Amino acid sequence: MVPMENYLVLSGIIFSLGVYGVLARRNAVLVLMSVELMLNAVSLNFVAFSAYLDPDKATGIIFAVFVIAVAAAEVGLALAIVIRLFRNRSTANVDEAATMRW
Amino acid sequence: MTTEVLWWIFAVAIVAVSAGVVFARTVIHSAIFLILSLAGVGAMYLFLTIEFIALVQFLIYGGAVTVLILLALMLTRMGIAGRPEPTTGVQAPFGALVAAGLMATLIGVAVSTAWPGDLGQNAVAVSIENIGEQMFQNFGAPFMITAALLLVAFIGAIVIARQEDED
Amino acid sequence: MAEHAWILAAVPGIAFIVMAALGRNLPRQGDWLAVLCATSIFGLFFAVLANFLNLGGGAWPVLNSIEWTAIGDFKLNMGIAVDPITIVMLAVITTVALMVNIFSVGYMKGEPRYWWYFAVLQLFVASMLMLVLADNLLLLYVAWELVGLSSFLLIGHYWERRSAVEAAKKAFITTRVGDVGLLIGIILFWEATGTFNILDIIHYVEEGAIGDTRLFVTMMFILLGAMGKSAQLPFHVWLPDAMEGPTPVSALIHAATMVVAGVYLVARLLPVFEAAGALDVVLVIGLLTALFSGVVAFAQTDIKKVLAYSTVSQLGFMFVALGAGYASAGMFHLFTHAFFKALLFLGAGSVIIGTHHHQEMGQLGGLWRKMPITAGTFLIGSLALAGLFPLAGFWSKDEILHAVEGQGTFFFFLISIAAIMTAFYTARLFVRTFLGKPQDEEIASHTRETGPVMTLPLVFLAFMSIVAGFFIFHDFGSAFGFPGGFSEFVFLHYPHAFHVDWGLVGLSTALFVIGTFGGAWFYWNGRLDRSTVMAEWQPKVYEMVQRKFYFDDLYQFLIDRVVLGFSYLVSWFDRFAVNDTGVDGSATMTGYAGFLLKHLQTGRVPNYAMAIAAGVVALTLISLAVGS
Amino acid sequence: MRDFTLFIPEFIAISGAIAILAAELIWPKIRKDYLAYATAAGALGWLIAAIPYIGDTAGDFEGVLLTDDFTTYFRILAAGIVMAIALISAHYMRDRTSTAGEYYGLLLVAGTGMVLMAASRELLTAYMSLELLSFSLYILVGYFKRDRLSNEASLKYILLGAFSSAMLLYGISLIYGVTGTTSYEGIAEALAAREGGTDAATVVGIMLIVAGVGFKVSAAPFHMWAPDAYQGAPLPITAFLSTASKAAGFALILRLFTGALVVDAVEWRAVIAALAAITMTAGNLLAIQQTNLKRLVAYSSIGQVGYMLVAIAAIGYGDAATAESASSALLLHIVGYTVSTLALFTALTAHYNRTGDDSIAGLRGLAETQPFLALVITASLFSFAGLPFFAGFATKLLLFQASTTEGLLWLVGLAAANSFVSLYYYLMVMRQMYLFDPPEGQTRFRPSPLLGALAGLLLLGVLFIGVYPQPAFEATDRAASALFEVSASGLIRLP
Hints:
Helices cover about 75% and strands about 0% of the residues of chain B. By secondary structure, chain B is an all-alpha fold. Chain D is built from 19 helices and 2 strands.
């Protein structure tokens, strides 16, 4: 049987990879994809907890459903902004959108 | 036993493709790895015997989100035009350091914490009826908020992306 | 009436609002309203005084307070407390304010923003009265800030002049450093006693409600506030610069009233200082200030600057008296000093107007003939300051000497030196300004005596400088209906009836004679050779004195290097180390500013995200480490 | 219980939002300032509908939302802010955009999100409400989509917002794992019933939650988005960000930390105190370096967040009575800060409508060209600096007073010293207005009567709270005590 910790470790690894992606990648779409990885890890956490510790109320599963919904909406909105950025500046690199600083 | 072996194969694969998302050289490869990673996590939900959430994962993530991302990639002509510019920023080594620290912390937390409940037991199958019942009995309010949230996101995407005469 | 003494503060407060709103459009820009306001509070003060004396010692302090805000156990009361210390302060403030308002009508004639000047003057009077009437530290703090604000506005009145703006800023910032201390002290009191009420706090402290160390720390913070306002070393730097303001303002705010707020505060809380064992600190600070600024006053050539350093020095004397535990001596010197120092400043103002804006001693001299009334009254003020028997300054300085006597020979010796210096620089000031031959015939030929609107306040204050000292006598006080002399009146419960100690009188007269004649000998008849000999003999020392022992340079350096440097460091860290971690190292090596800036550009999402992630990791690691 | 009557005011707000969206769809040529007035009217209706709830017994909605005086307090605050922002925007948006329906609709939605954040007592609901507010703000910040700065600001905001949301969610999942529930009461009970001390998961979970909500209220080092978002956003939205967004963040923090996490106060109080110290110092020192007004306000508001966090730390350090009075003082400070900020931005918008310059130097000589606006700006800056007779003095004083507990004296001292630093850059702004001549060709002008009246009203509010804070204090005290009635009195652990 697979113990719960395995899921948690897996989720931690995915989450950290997502964090690395946000910190390291330049393309806005890539940054978004990294955020998706992080949210995915969160969902996995919730579902694992729910399945092992709280199967009656299933709060974690419901939470995961909502997280997925929010993630989808967030991607839609963020991509619209990225496309607008591309139209304004012909780039989708986040580090080039740095007019405002200091 | 076979489940366990299968689980480990999937787990390693998920880590590999997730790493692919953040390390791949071209954007389009990253996108493909992301689809694989999302699908892999969906498979994890199947291991947990919660088919409902796996279904949601495949439908919304594997379907809608990745299509959106691919669309955006096409619209911003990244990766496809194959412009030879680095997709990894100068900050990467420091990012790796911080992410490694975080990973160590999270793994440490997962392993060292004495989680409540009997850990020897397997994941309990949660029926879709139960989920539906709980969701609409106890979480009606967030459900309504989600409706407003999706409306907002919808309006926002239109407002920000739509072409106008002046464009 | 005494319980309605708040009216004293309300009248100028309303006058300020009216004048700020309408001032420009009132006839004569509203100066009559200012004088009317000052006259009425002067009159009202006597009503308060009469009522206060009528009520008699048993009814003191007269209290009156209302609930300002209250939730459950948390109550904030606002009110007034009138006791003899308050009465002394009220007397000083109302009298000097009236004189200054009248004098200003002549002095400020034709100056820019005439109406605004008078409006702010009323704001100052209102907040100063509120300060001394307040029965709780919170209201006191509010008034404390407001007098600071009006002082800031008045110092910067000629804001076309850069130096005035700088001086205003300096005064505001320097005193505000002290104010932060005061606020912290007040909060600490609150934390320990749960009240802001001054009498309650004294009561709690006497019961020993606050631990020793805590009490000492609290009092140090409070003292910080008092030192900032009263220009004690090392916060004195703002007061000489504050002379950039109109001269009547210097007389009112920077000699007679606002600067003594610190003395007032210490006197008010003296039992607490005593309980905290903090009196020695007060004594040492006062002594250092008195000596230091006495020395610096020698090397000043601007009349007002000499007076400013003299004020700092006299404030030091007051602190010495308080530090020796003799609150009545400190308050008495505050009382007499207010009259003769206001007189001297207004006299200086009269000189400035009479000579058409010249205030460098090197250009003056021989004004005695041209401006007899100014010179005469200035002489009285100088002698009072130097301590001639039986003028006001003599008696109060005598009390201070008497107070320090108990603190040991060393302190007594030092304070005597300071007293000699006072007489010395006062003599120098008077001799070089009014006696001898005019240094500049051009200026002298245009000099005229000023009009009665300016000379009459001088005469009145000169009169006060002569008689104010007599309040020390039991019989003199009783004749006016006071319960005895000054000391008995101010500290009813610790009566120590004044009796003349002829030994001290002799000593103090000797100090006066040494100082005055020494000064006169040095500077007589515009002959500067004797003093230049001194300057040439030790040029380094002279320069050090003239540069005010480099205090201002030190502060400038500190502000430039340390504060701004620290701020730059933090901002550099934020921009560079946090935002731009890992910016191409070679870029920074090149050293070309433009190239560098290009690569310094931040506003990048990854850098911001890095701050968040690193912050999270740091937080978790720290709290895990702390937890285990 | 599913009692929809508990949220009538919010239904009014949402209906107003939809009506405004529809109005512009049906009648695209409608004058855009009419939409602003309609929004303000909707917000007024919202506010009036909220009044009957004052003092009402706490109403529970499915155990996830609660309408008590705390919620009602934020209802009134949100409605007031939305009303003011709509009026501030009227001319500004009319002159700059051809479609404003979404803008005004989203303002109302964002306000609703803020109320729901205050009402939530369950993590999923709280998270969804937070996202409702955030999504609206992402769009509002980037509303001038062809403006490079506005677009850049919203990009930074949404990417970093999503990033920090993920952090927050991970933290929530860990807390869920430890306690098996997401309701605040359940968490408090589970944490209290735990044996053998705190485990790593709780600590890390709390830290991640701190980071997530710290981002929302822009506490250092999670603050970096704020200056950029403030600068790029339309001017009224900058005001909205610095008032509604922060107030909502603190509403959530208060409910969560007093209701659920207070049991584990030892784990987070030192961290919050450190964050408060870093935030106020960084905000105030960086503000000195600014040349752009919006960025200056951004950093100064970060400084204010530092002061507010002192109260949260005090909740962790003090006993139950301290926690209640600190919460009450925090709510009061939020009101004072909100009114001052709105007054400042009303005046700045009137100035901007005329000059189109948002640099500090752009205020040169305002005392001469428009003394009233200069007066309003001066008053609100004095209020931020905490000078007597302005709102900031009374509220900050009560805040520091209530937060003074044994372990936090150093922090209160630091906060007092920081308010001293802050005066320096406020004076720099005032210097521009009062000491310099107006730029070439700038003549005397009158602000529009609407903005003039609004600025005057808010100025009176600043002075009123400063001189007589009693009514505001009573309201906040009521709200704070409601907060503590719910969080089961016995749970506050004495240190």
